[in-house]
Specification:
Four Helix Bundle (Hemerythrin (Met), subunit A); extended; single chain; disordered C terminus; 71% helix; 10 helices; 334 residues; mainly alpha
């Protein structure tokens, strides 16, 4: 009896274990299926991942200079609205000076970028397209009503087109090396400084009248057309990269003298500089034509030499002795 009872007890215990294991297995299967249908929610945020690498500081400095020039251009518009034309012109000149050094600093520091190029184009459009147009309109073109506003609009639009064309031509691989010394049309900063010539003249004592306003109208349209024209203009980009040792001190003196004259006699310096710049435009065109003539001569010489060498090359390739020069022929053939 004891053995049988022990056997029965063991058998009943085994059945209980099987039912328990079956229930646990079924519960685990249901829980797994539920988790597969409804995945668990993790309340913790995903770990922070850096998407972009750190930007060097040397690439930020040229962009900061460009932003400073943009601030100067926007401030010039405000000063023109407040009828503070002297300060407005000073802000435009300051923006032009900053625009002349930001690109050089970027190339020196090897901090050029596509972002900087686009930002520079936007700043140039505001500083040298919109701001000078509004300054001229608030100064005197408003007396012509709609005609004056049209002149201001044309100048601003031509400045934008000039900058867009510059960005497109910058990636042209077929341009010769010497073409980097020339702009196509008056650049936007020079156009802004040049178009303000009537205001410089009035600050020198010329009275503002209807004749002056109409002259400003046609003069603004002329500068706008020169900006979008195909006229070659000296760029000056390759000037100043290397200074001879004996010219270091004279360069320092000339730069200090220029800024001293600009601060002391701003309207005289700006007037003389504008007239000199306009007078040098034909020189840039003549220099460009001279480079084109040299390239055409070199191309003609190369094509002539190639044409002379072609028959002998064909004869050599064909193996025909009859194509050899007459002086090398035997006497009986001559």
């Amino acid at each position: 009896m004891r053995a049988v009872g022990h056997f029965v007890a063991d058998k009943s215990l085994t059945r209980w274990d099987e039912s328990l294991f079956s229930a646990v297995a079924q519960g685990a299967i249901r829980a797994y299926i539920r988790l597969m249908v409804f995945p668990p929610f993790d309340p913790a945020p995903p770990p922070f991942r850096r998407r972009f690498k750190a930007i060097p500081v040397r690439t930020l400095l040229p962009n900061l200079i460009t932003l400073l020039a943009l601030c100067a251009g926007l401030t010039a518009i405000r000063l023109a609205v407040e009828d503070k034309l002297e300060l407005a012109l000073a802000a435009i000149v300051f923006a032009a000076l900053l625009d002349g050094i930001d690109g050089r600093i970027a190339r020196m520091l090897k901090g050029t970028s596509r972002f900087g190029a686009e930002l520079d184009s936007l700043a140039d459009f505001v500083n040298f397209g919109v701001a000078p147009a509004l300054i001229l309109y608030f100064w005197g073109l408003h007396e012509l009503k709609s005609a004056g506003w049209i002149a201001a609009l044309v100048f601003a639009i031509c400045a934008g087109l000039r900058l867009a064309r510059f960005n497109v031509m910058m990636d042209d691989p077929n341009r010769p090396i010497w073409a980097g010394n020339f702009f196509t049309g008056i650049p936007a900063p020079a156009g802004a400084i040049t178009v303000l010539l009537p205001i410089y003249v009035t600050f020198l004592g010329v009275p503002v009248g209807l004749v002056t306003v109409w002259f400003t109208f046609f003069y603004t349209l002329l500068i706008a057309l020169l900006m979008v024209s195909r006229l070659p203009v000296f760029s000056g980009k390759r000037v100043g990269k290397r200074v001879p040792p004996e010219m270091v001190l004279p360069v320092f003196v000339m730069v200090v003298l220029f800024f001293a004259l600009l601060v002391s006699y701003p309207w005289q310096v700006l007037t003389i500089g504008t007239l000199a710049y306009l007078g040098c435009l034909p020189l840039g065109w003549l220099s460009y034509r001279e480079h084109q003539r040299k390239d055409a001569t070199a191309a003609a010489t190369t094509s002539t030499a190639t044409a002379k060498a072609t028959p002998s090359d064909e004869a050599f390739a064909s193996g025909q002795p009859g194509h050899q020069p007459a002086k090398d022929r035997p006497a009986r053939l001559n």
